[in-house]
Design brief:
Largest sheet: 6 strands, mixed
Low-confidence stretches: 1-12
CATH superfamily of the largest domain: ABC transporter type 1, transmembrane domain
CATH architecture of the largest domain: Up-down Bundle
Helix content: 55-70%
Structural class: alpha/beta
Shape: elongated
Mean pLDDT: 79
Length: 617
């Protein structure tokens, strides 16, 4: 089913995370090391603050370590107890300070290593996601592209995949370390005082509940922004591609106004989303500080009234609580930051979920050649939501024949030839190649028999050589040059600055129309397909270019079955058979002479092109 980019179904958020995680599997070792270094850094971070207890005790003139039972005291006795001397307070202070410094250096080394691994992880995962999206995009059926805007497609391939990086950054790198810090900090706090820890943890559910409505709105807002960004990209792409038309029609002001309107909508959407996003930090910090104040008051009571804690333990507890606010704040912001990434990931997976041609290909037989005929049997075709473009078309094209397709605009000529390589599928009826329904043939083998030279020549920003040998197939330089000579292209190619290695620029902008057409013909000659689809290539050329292109076309037609979409009837008078289409129906079929003698639609079209216009007084 064809969908526009704006109408593609949303991917459930619960499905996004596991699908992203699948892209992590090839990088499992980086992920494992990132997890290990983050946990190690979190453990050392929390441990460095427990070392404040012997430091503060020594500073306040008390024994650095007490004999009181408890996991914290046991840990301190094992790690630093052996070099603390109650009789040497300054020496003990210095030893604790040096030990803290060593732990901080080790922690930050692990933080640096985890940061390097995390950066590699996110870049490689996004690279793989972008490659998977582009590969799938090239395999989508033609109707998908007719309904999709170029700007939206570009935004999904480049912008949305880049935005998806934040999910990996927040969840795998920052959040992993913050989560580990929170877990180990809570464990340490419980060991110091479970009562104060219980009060301290009240803030977490409060923060989560307070932010839930904001997060829901943020996800929707970022999805809207993704679509608006795609619209903005589309406007720029259209204006740049059609700049000659814009200038010719003096439409600069119109295009500027159109861009300004879309740009203003995008900016307002960003402001709205930004307003929501900035709520998370003040809410988190306000609630966290309120909880810390309550903990401070209760802790003072445990020290001064109940005697259940030492002053150094309370100070260390409070420092750990305040230290925990930062990773808690980061964790609280993860859903906020992740909304844009998740919205972008949803847009990426919408494209990946669109069924590819390969997925819908039911062909199992391999076409090894073309020997007899190509036949249309009662073929109907209708675009989704539209009227029938073809109605009950039946004919037979023998091997080696030139079949011309003529008719007014909208008659169905392009649709008919698109059915041959299965760019689109018949709604009813079928097409047979040597008696075999082409739906039973694999797409790759069927298209291997078909070549296309269109009026709108497509060249890529690559060298002349690579444009002729397009498709990555292995052709020798001699084969490429022979094809160029047969296409009357070798002469102008050798005059280019670097000959066959000259880059052509975007869409072959450095060449004339006739030169571009001859390269396209050379490409088809090199591929040597038995079936050729030719959209008349000479209608927009000057006389000399038309002569050279027509000579090349004549060589191209030799020994092939050719379907020519004819715009100028003078070019197809020698066709073996002319098919006349009108409103999707095949209304006439025959040779040039037969159709003229019949005096029907073809004769009328011929008369419009060749009868002299009446003189004006």
């Amino acid at each position: 089913m064809t969908q526009t980019t704006a109408e593609m179904r949303a991917v459930a958020p619960a499905r996004v995370y596991p699908r992203l995680l699948r892209f992590l599997r090839p990088h499992a070792w980086r992920l494992g090391l990132t997890v290990a270094t983050n946990i190690g850094a979190a453990v050392l971070d929390v441990f460095s603050f427990t070392l404040l207890i012997p430091f503060l005790n020594a500073l306040f003139g008390e024994p650095p370590l007490t004999n009181a039972p408890g996991p914290i005291n046991d840990l301190l006795r094992v790690t630093v107890g052996w070099f603390l001397d109650p009789a040497d307070k300054m020496g003990s202070l210095l030893n604790v300070i040096l030990f803290i410094l060593g732990v901080i250096v080790a922690k930050n080394t692990l933080v640096w290593v985890s940061g390097q691994l995390g950066a590699q992880l996110q870049e490689y995962v996004v690279r793989d996601l972008r490659s998977a999206l582009y590969a799938h995009l090239t395999r989508l059926p033609m109707p998908w592209f007719t309904s999709a805007k170029v700007g939206q497609v570009i935004a999904r391939v480049l912008t949305d995949t880049q935005n998806t990086k934040a999910v990996i950054t927040e969840l795998i790198t920052k959040s992993l370390m913050s989560g580990a810090q929170v877990v180990f900090t809570i464990g340490t706090l419980v060991a110091m005082s479970w009562q104060l820890t219980l009060v301290s943890l009240v803030g977490a559910p409060l923060i989560t509940v307070a932010l839930l409505p904001v997060l829901r709105k943020l996800r929707k807002g970022h999805r809207r922004l993704g679509n608006q960004h795609g619209e903005l990209t589309s406007i720029v792409q259209e204006a740049v591609a059609g700049i000659r038309l814009v200038k010719a029609f003096r439409a600069e002001a119109h295009e500027t106004a159109r861009f300004d309107a879309a740009n203003n909508t995008f900016a307002r959407g960003n402001v709205k989303v930004g307003r929501l996003a900035t709520l998370s930090q003040p809410v988190t910090e306000t609630l966290g500080t309120a909880v810390a104040v309550v903990v401070l008051w209760l802790g003072a009571r445990l020290v001064l009234v109940d005697g259940a804690m030492q002053g150094s333990e309370l100070i260390s507890f409070l420092i750990l609580v305040m230290r925990m606010l930062q990773p808690l704040k980061q964790l609280a912001q993860v859903p906020t930051v992740a909304q844009q990434s998740l919205a972008s990931a949803e847009r990426v997976f919408e494209v990946l979920d669109a069924p590819s041609e390969v997925a819908s290909d039911r062909g199992t037989r391999v076409a090894t050649g073309f020997r007899e005929a190509l036949e249309f049997h009662g073929v109907h075709f209708a675009y989704e939501g539209g009227a029938e473009a073809l109605r009950d078309v039946s004919f037979r094209a023998e091997r080696g024949q030139v079949i011309a397709l003529v008719g007014p605009s909208g008659a169905g000529k392009t649709t008919l030839v698109d059915l041959i390589p299965r760019f689109v599928q018949p709604s009813r009826g079928y097409i047979a190649l040597d008696g075999v329904n082409i739906a039973e043939l694999t797409l790759e083998s069927l298209r291997g028999l078909t070549g296309i030279v269109s009026q709108d020549t497509v060249l890529f920003n690559d060298t002349v050589r690579n444009n002729i040998a397009f498709g990555g197939r292995a052709f020798t330089d001699a084969q490429i040059e022979a094809a160029a000579r047969a296409a009357n292209a070798h002469g102008f190619i050798t005059e280019l600055p670097q000959g066959y290695d000259t880059p052509l620029g975007e869409r072959g902008a450095r060449l004339s129309g006739g030169q571009r057409q001859r390269l396209a013909i050379a490409r088809a000659l090199l591929l040597d397909p038995p079936i050729l689809i030719l959209d008349e290539a000479t209608s927009a050329l000057d006389v000399e270019s038309e002569r050279l292109v027509q000579e090349a076309i004549d060589r191209l037609l030799t020994g092939r079955t050719v379907f020519v979409i004819a715009h100028r009837l003078s070019t197809i008078q020698h066709a073996d058979r002319i098919l006349v289409l009108e409103r999707g129906a095949l209304v006439e079929s025959g040779t040039h002479a037969e159709l003229l003698a019949r005096g029907g639609t073809y004769a009328r079209l011929h008369g419009l092109q060749f009868e002299p216009a009446p003189a004006h007084v």
